[in-house]
Write a structure and sequence with these properties.
The chain is mainly beta and about 60 residues long. It has no helices and three strands. Strand 1 and strand 2 form a beta hairpin. It is elongated.
Amino acid sequence: MRPPVPGQNRFGGWLHGPRQTAKGFFYPQKIRGQWFLIDPEGALFFSRGINDISLNAFLPGRKRE
């Protein structure tokens, strides 16, 4: 496991941002009309990684779905 980024908790959530209910798992929450992903500790979460991989994008002659 890589070390956390300063200002983020162990899940990548915003340490000093608004807090929501900690449920022990990731869940979506609408806050002031905008959707956010909440981490298991109740912090707002922003994904900084690959979110989707499709083999169709890499194989010649295949149509993308």
